[in-house]
Amino acid sequence: MKSIVYGVRLPLSYKHLHTDSKRHTDFVLYVDYKPDPPENPVSHYLELKTSRSLINPRQIKTFESQKLLKFWAQSFLLGIPRIIVGFRSDTNVLLSTQTLETMAIPAQVRERGGPGVWDGNVCINFAARFLEVLRAGMEEGALMGIRFQKGGAAVEVFRKEGGTFLTKEFIKWKDQVRNSEGK
Known about the structure:
By secondary structure, this protein is α/β, with parallel strands linked by helices. About 5% of the residues are buried. The chain contains four helices and eight strands.
């Protein structure tokens, strides 16, 4: 069984292992909230997202066809029932919030209709097939990368050298931060 790490590990994080029995994949989810009772914590989780305030029909269409799809897919795959979206101004001031029920999002998008509407079933079937291909291309114990060229028709799975998934730029920045904090 392969594992996928999702999220950022915070100093006071609660680690939850979520297994998708249909896909035989483990997701390691780090959250900064430990639910009570801990027997079934996922039903207590929620996803926090931000988006620019939606002012015109074009922004609404882009939000529904792109951002909302990403929000839904992340939460659906992990069984997170609610998403709270904070809508912000261009100066990053919170203007409003909206709570979305994860399972209701595909139907809401479908009801609004129009070109570019996504279908949750198609998305999940694609993701399942993609994970199968990814799993087949992985080498046990190796750090693997995924490359997709925009506009291309193929996804490449390749072995990464160097033993880390962090970019050189990120490592350099992190070293600078550590050095400045140590002075």
